[in-house]
Amino acid sequence: TPAMAQEQVLNIYSARHYPSDELMYGAFSKATGIQIKRVDADDAGILARLKAEGAASPADVILLVDASRLWRGQVDGLFMPIKSPLLEQAIPAHLRAQPDPNGGTAWFGLSTRARVVVFDKLKYKKSDFDSYEKLADPKFKGQLCIRSGSHPYNLSLFGAMTEHMGAAQTEAWLKGLVGNMARSPKGGDTDQIKGVASGECGMAVTNSYYLARLMRSTQAADVAVTEKIGVVFPNQSSWGTHMNVAGGAVAKHAKHSANAVKFLEYLASPAAQNHFANGNNEWPAAQGVRFDNPALQAMTGGSFKSELLPISAVGQNQTKVQQMLDRVGFK
Ligand code: FE
User: Fold this and answer.
1) 15-35 pLDDT tens trace
2) Which of 53, 70, 205, 252 keeps 20 to 30 A from 45, CA to CA?
3) H helices, E strands: number in the chain
4) In 135-269, where does DSSP find H-type helix?
5) What count of other Cβ atoms lies within 10 Å of the Cβ of residue 48?
6) H/E run at residue 32
7) Chain segment 161-171, per-residue pLDDT in tens
């Protein structure tokens, strides 16, 4: 049978840049006897590599850290849509690809992260930033730190804003963000948080897990950074805080597709979902998983309203958003 012919090997191309994931891979190998070989690159690098390798690609599982890139991999035909009752039951419909026209699902979100606002507690209060729209208010001129507009995390946030507000209003908002920048975009999300703590900016945009990582750090300097800032989960009284996903797919030309599905199902299991929550400070994508993370608890007070937009929709706005960014001069 094909199952018997399949060697106990799994080739993963991963954009998850989180060292704590090692434990999870080890646990899977131990439980199944399947040996994992991993190639690390960023989302764009992985998609380019899959295209270049074509049918000769050794990749079985693809792990990416952004909804727009997952969508891109799907429309470029780089994934093998799969049928997994277990994944379909565990992962809510808005956190996975729309059903493939030929059956199956091209990718599944496996963990979620909120794109939040942090601010200088001495200068501002939570209500100053209780919506993303307020970041563009001219009264915050010279206060905003944010990474490059073209980074997938921002493309996805701006793609979601386009769904909520329409293109014209989103472009005006982006223009307002550019007008409020404290400096030209540089660095990653952690650098934006540190920019607030150092006083270079009054407000910044970051993924939630970078902040949680600083909160849970054993370095006094990291903890000192978090003590200077407040955090807001925006749009609680409207569409909810923007959530992005990290997710997985089976590669189009996977040679070990049964192992690949098994691995994705493992990632949706309560044990692995707990790992995402505790090891990397993300929220489980699977429904009904209990977890205990003091930083996430402290940040949210226990619960918050998250955006319920079908996450597959943000990818479709990518090109439009990039054109807006070019027009308003958002580097
Ligand atoms: Fe990240």
Assistant:
1) 997 888 888 999 999 999 999
2) 205
3) 15, 9
4) 152-165, 167-180, 189-197, 208-215, 220-227, 257-267
5) 12
6) helix 22-32
7) 999 999 999 99
CA pair distance 209, 207, nearest whole angstrom: 6
* Number of CB atoms found within 10 A of residue 101's CB: 7
pLDDT at residue 19, as a whole number: 80
Dmax of the chain from CA atoms? 68
What's the 157 CA to ligand 1 centre distance in angstroms?
14
Cα distances (angstroms) measured from residue 49 to each of 81, 125, 259, 261, 315: 19, 45, 21, 21, 20
Residue type for position 262:
K
- How far from chain centre, in Å, is Cα 79? 19
Closest CA to 269 of 255, 287, 283: 287
Ligand 1 centroid–CA 214 distance in Å is 13
Cα(187) to ligand 1 centroid in Å equals: 12
Measure CA of the first residue to CA of the last residue in the chain; give whole Å. Answer: 54
Per residue in 74-124, pLDDT (tens digit) is 999 999 999 999 999 999 999 999 999 999 999 999 999 999 999 999 999
How large is the average pLDDT for residues 294-309?
94
Please state, in angstroms and rounded to a whole number, the distance separating the CA atoms of residues 101 and 80. Answer: 12
pLDDT at 325: 98
* CA–centroid distance, residue 17 to ligand 1 (Å): 7
Asked if the model's pLDDT at residue 139 lies above 60, the reply is yes
Ligand 1 centroid – CA 206 distance (Å) = 9
CA–centroid distance, 265 to ligand 1, in Å, is 23
* Cα 237 to averaged position of ligand 1 atoms, centre (Å): 27
